[in-house]
Task: structure prediction
Amino acid sequence: MTAGAGAGERRRLLVVDDDRALADMLGEYLERAGYLVTARETVSEGFAAARREAFDAVVLDVMLPDGDGLDLCRRIRAESDVPILMLTARGDPSDRIVGLEIGADDYLPKPFNPRELLARLRAILRRRTGPGARAETLRFGALEIDRTARVVRLEGEERAITSHQFELLWALASRAGQVLTRDALMQLVRGEDLEAFDRSIDVHVSRIRQAIEDDPRRPRRILTVRGVGYVFSRSPSSSGGAAAGGS
Result:
């Protein structure tokens, strides 16, 4: 599953509900509030969209035509920490309890006031992105870095890297846009000073690029800043740029 909106971008929402009239109304309301909304009607469509695209939050109905929205919540949560707001027309409070236990962030019974849903969404996003929030999953376009599971995915597929390489990638990606020297990276990853003539960082970066770059020879995610070190690009461009190159 992929990254959500960056700073200054419109947040992207996935709404999974088979009530087309409700989904259309909700989509229009949320888009007027500044969000970009993608609507899906089934468990299979919702899960495919969540894996393929970048969303900042998911609004998920419990009752769907091809399965249980609770199961979809569980499947999404197994791969992502994207905020999930559950909707239901059921009166059984056990649904709410189960939904929260399997990873939903909030729960809203139908019928609901769209203003309340918007307020709850904003509260969830503030909790996830505010100063006190601790990011355990980073997403940049098609690339997902899950620190809890220690898994890296590109286009939803796991990419094999070593534990040391994962720590190096996390150090770079969690400081996206910040140029880091080789010494700084060694301190962050091992807590040791980089030894003279030690090129192990360069070797590891090269192998990480093999795993996460579309074209490792023309990296767009991990860029080399000549004479300094490396920087993880916040928004990969079509080329490495004048200051960037291979290791």
User: Anything to note?
Assistant: The first helix runs from residue 20 to 32. Confidence is low (pLDDT under 50) at residues 238-247. The longest strand covers residues 12-16.
